[in-house]
């Protein structure tokens, strides 16, 4: 069976690409520290030596739209073109092309449906920065085949937080039951507290540093009990109006497993939002702990 | 009240560079044209299978023509869509980094939780 060699959860900051590649007067003062942290984070994936990446993210009204909105969607295609005109325009993101791993997509869809998740699928999916940002930070060669999994954290009504956790737990079992010798890393991106298009946006820190502190603690210690006790669809409005993206971190806590302490934890306090990076090496893998 | 249609306007204009420029330069013309010719398009249908029932309220149309992002927030338009399109139109006028984004937030300082419902 396949092995999960790393579980990685991260924020997906679309400004990283431009900040890290800019020079001279255009280079922001925080770019050097940010780049150092990303290179250290990247090493946590590189050392796991994965063959395939399962990538959990959320479409930002690019291909998925309100006339036909899935809650959870799995890409099943041989290739995925990536990034969109408005992401080039606002963030300077490059166009990319990623290979797909269709056998694993088919396995996740079949087993997910049989495990109680009525997963939508797409045979032609152009992915956006929720998946390309972690490719840029963690695997800039973009040379490994992927299975994209999109969640709806954006267009209410949303699934409950507990549903994200359960899907993560299911993905863990499903990948580990894939009849393959390949080494799989599961990578998911979300947000800590975040405000977009509201009065608290673009402040000197994230809109709710106290939420961020508690959230990092929940993730780093695998504390799903307290996280699920405190986080509800209603409560997530309070830290910032885009904070429902935190549910993708909860999904990744489900993949890592209740009580699983992260082997690698790092954060970076930026304007607008806090960056956070977590890596787990499942005990059955050869990744070892840091 | 048609939050869906407001979002459809923001979504379809934001993804078309020509429409972004027309909305910036001549908002009344663009909004009128869009409501007449695009509001009822089903997005993946090209041969006339359009909807028949979608139109803005006067309040919505006025807010769009006035580039009134504060009113759009109050009406429950999706904040991500509004912000993305308005940055596309107006960030270019910045004299310092994030000037437009910060002013955009400051104009909304009177909103307290709970914010207007964005469910469609």
TrEMBL record, chain A:
Q: Which domain of life is it from?
A: Bacteria
Q: Name one GO molecular function term.
A: dioxygenase activity
Q: Enumerate the Gene3D superfamilies for this protein.
A: LigB-like (3.40.830.10)
Q: Does the keyword Oxidoreductase apply?
A: yes
Entry's Pfam families? LigB
**What keywords is this UniProt entry annotated with?**
Dioxygenase, Oxidoreductase
SUPFAM superfamilies associated with the record: LigB-like
Residue span, Extradiol ring-cleavage dioxygenase class III enzyme subunit B domain:
8-261
* Oxidoreductase as UniProt keyword: yes
Instruction: Give the protein name, as stated in the record.
Output: Extradiol ring-cleavage dioxygenase
UniProtKB/TrEMBL annotation, chain B:
The protein, known as:
Extradiol ring-cleavage dioxygenase LigAB LigA subunit domain-containing protein
